[in-house]
Amino acid sequence: xxxxxxxxxxxxxxxxxxxxxxxxxxxxxxxxxxxxxxxxxxxxxxxxxxxxxxxxxxxxxxxxxxxxxxxxxxxxxxxxxxxxxxxxxxxxxxxxxxxxxxxxxxxxxxxxxxxxxxxxxxxxxxxxxxxxxxxxxxxxxxxxxxxxxxxxxxxxxxxxxxxxxxxxxxxxxxxxxxxxxxxxxxxxxxxxxxxxxxxxxxxxxxxxxxxxxxxxxxxxxxxxxxxxxxxxxxx
Amino acid sequence: xxxxxxxxxxxxxxxxxxxxxxxxxxxxxxxxxxxxxxxxxxxxxxxxxxxxxxxxxxxxxxxxxxxxxxxxxxxxxxxxxxxxxxxxxxxxxxxxxxxxxxxxxxxxxxxxxxxxxxxxxxxxxxxxxxxxxxxxxxxxxxxxxxxxxxxxxxxxxxxxxxxxxxxxxxxxxxxxxxxxxxxxxxxxxxxxxxxxxxxxxxxxxxxxxxxxxxxxxxxx
Lengths: 235, 220
What we know:
heterodimer; A: 12 strands; 20% strand; B: 51% helix
């Protein structure tokens, strides 16, 4: 399942969380649940969800605190992706409440009780808009995960050892897995070359990277002849 | 009256007004709490209905409960407005009028929910549930036999008719005494851009909700 279809549902009311998770799973999302801010923050780091659906009225610290902590993350010293889309669900429906949510970094605000089809439509619209954004924190593409912080790469359950430039190349490609990156662009961004003459450096690294990832049934590091490379094909 | 007497009276009036304002503010705060407390359970119940409605074969009783939840939702919007929330009308969604009204009525009397296929209107389901719910409440309280619910297209829009069989009580005036439900139903109809007329016809009480077509080409 695509990592963009995974959602973190932060809601302290068990009945609401359970029924909402059931409905979202029935609509094809992978749902992780959290009942409070600390648990949610750990899940944002560990699970790298494609979106957070956040209730504000949590027991203990408010959902706005989670929003603050996510948006304040630098994406470098922690695995929290500060740009993860967040849709707020709340029983507080006044104009000031909506403005406060957006001012603190929410991408959307929906008042309880909401119509489930409306929530679903908003989630899909937000995910559509978020597609292709540069992601920080752990990058996941299918069974491949790339952690910029620890430089750990995993393919399914297997850990993959990469040299520094192989890792940098993989990370660059994983930012937008199906986009074709030009050779000059990669040599400039990964190797820091200002002017590019005839060099086999990129092709040699791409070849080694492909070999290290070949245990997967999916094809990785695809050569687009005469143009450059993309990480993988669209599903 | 002496100057001191006038000042004393003014002070008493000010104290009385301040006390009333404080009492009203307390009541309003309780309304806010109640409104907030209702939102969570209504959300959970609506999500539960959504979940149960997905079961293979479906269960029409879920629609009956959903119609009641829609009415509850509309009531919450009104409570929110009393507390200063945004007074804008809710956007409409497509509703099969016969089926929805039938489901709302089925909460009050044992009857099957009509099959889909009636006229579809773009309407705020909460307000629609308020209209039907209040009319059905009235009919259940004062009516005779089974309520007839029909929906049909008219040259300018769609009409939903609820007919209480002969022997039913006369309609009460909206907004007076115990006729509050009729007043709420009329206001809900207006909020949808339509109108509600209640009349006696051959000893039957007939309520007609007229919903005009939105501007633009008419749907088939």
